[in-house]
Amino acid sequence: MSIIIRDVREHELDLVLALNNAAGPGILPMDAAKLRFFWENADYFRVAEKDGLMAGFLVALSHQAPHDSSNFLWFRERYPQFLYVDRIVIASSRRGAGVGRVFYGDVQSFAEMRVPQLAAEVFMEGSSHPALLFHGSFGFREVGQHVMPDHGLRACMLVKELCSYPYVQQTYGNALPDVSWLSARTVPGRKAHLATGT
């Protein structure tokens, strides 16, 4: 069966939390409060579904989000507009099956309509070469390194220029067409950070 990418549903948050905290040392653990923050503030929070089961998730926040991650703040000090991939987690049974590539294609399609850059980081501890190669294959480049003061982890800071953004801005400004594939997440009471349509 094919991989389906869709917005996360609130009743799936416990499963997302379990998936995150079983991911291993390349992903920072999180608690229910952090997950709730993502539910309420992430501009992009989607899951991958394969054979009816959750295969992974990706969370990304705009430069306007009230995020306190030191990696996020590092990018915000240097770039006026971006979408920041806070985490991507793939279930261990689905790694190597192309789920990460599908996610990055989808998040790039979402981002390039709204911001000029996509930002991410890869932790340098342990074997980060596959993750760096993965990001490099998508056109990310290293723009610096940052040591997270609360964890002591060194991160390679990566940015991808989104070549479609200037055309979208010139043609549509901040009023994207009102079509379903361009719509942003809707969470009751949540204020959208990025332009989503007319």
TrEMBL record:
Top-level taxon of the source organism: Bacteria
InterPro entries: Acyl_CoA_acyltransferase, GNAT_dom, UCP028520
Gene3D superfamilies the UniProt entry points to: 3.40.630.30
Domain N-acetyltransferase: 3-163
SUPFAM superfamilies on file: Acyl-CoA N-acyltransferases (Nat)
Single GO MF descriptor: acyltransferase activity, transferring groups other than amino-acyl groups
UniProt name for this protein: N-acetyltransferase domain-containing protein
Organism in which the protein naturally occurs: Arenimonas oryziterrae DSM 21050 = YC6267
